[in-house]
Amino acid sequence: MAKANTYLNFSGNTEEAFIFYKSVFGGDFIALQRYSDTAEGDNLPDADKDKIMHISLPIGEGSILMATDALESMGQKLTTGNNIYICLSADNEAEADMLFDGLSAGGNIEMPMEKMFWGSYFGSFIDKFGIGWMIDCVIDPQE
Questions:
Q1: Which homologous superfamily is 85-138 in?
Q2: Is residue 48 within 8 Å of residue 73, measured between CB atoms?
Q3: What are the pLDDT digits (tens) for 6-45?
Q4: Using an 8 Å Cβ cutoff, are 17 and 10 in contact?
Q5: What order of strands is seen across the sheet that includes strand 85-89?
Q6: I need a surface site. Which of 22, 89, 111, 139 has the fewest CB within 10 A?
Q7: How many other β-carbons are positioned within 10 Å of the β-carbon of residue 48?
Q8: Residue 30, Cα to own-chain centre: how many angstroms?
Q9: What are the residue ranges spanned by the domains of the chain?
Q10: What DSSP character marks residue 74?
């Protein structure tokens, strides 16, 4: 699987997103820290204290998906858009399909998985949390 250490920002639903991602990738969180666990935690509004300050989920050999909740109470502003795609390079078409089907559930498929002219089995989508993903698998040109 691809090695992608990507950091995502969410507007308060990091925990929900990472429970979903964990359901697709499996494994366990290697870090989960809430804002209440930090030195600044006592200074935050009660609604923000239980939000995620940092979370990490291994998603393959040597790759980690990380995130935080961007808090307006700390002057952080999140703009969700098309400015980020995570590209995962699968080892084979079966793995590519598993990743595509799992992560695209409830999202918006932009390009279904198919063999492309550049020699890859490829697809893209925006998941149900607004994150863009590209799944790529280099195929044998003899196929």
A1: 2,3-Dihydroxybiphenyl 1,2-Dioxygenase, domain 1 (3.10.180.10)
A2: yes
A3: 888 888 999 999 999 999 999 999 999 999 998 888 889 9
A4: yes
A5: 85-89, 132-138, 120-126, 108-115
A6: 111
A7: 19
A8: 15
A9: 6-73, 85-138
A10: G
CA–CA gap between residue 140 and residue 26 (Å, rounded): 29
d(CA 32, CA 14): 11
Q: Report the alpha-carbon distance of residue 56 to residue 119 in Å, rounded.
A: 32
Model pTM above 0.85: no
CA end-to-end distance (rounded Å), the chain: 21
Kindly give, in sequence order, each residue whose CB lies less than 8 Å from that of residue 143, ignoring residues fewer than 6 positions away: 115
CA–CA distances in Å: residue 69 to residues 35, 62, 66, 79, 123? 9, 24, 11, 12, 28
Identical fold at 6-73 and 85-138? no
**Residue 4, Cβ density class (10 Å: 0-12 exposed, 13-18 middle, ≥19 buried):** middle
CA 8 to CA 59: how far, in whole Å?
A: 14
Maximal CA-CA distance, the chain:
61
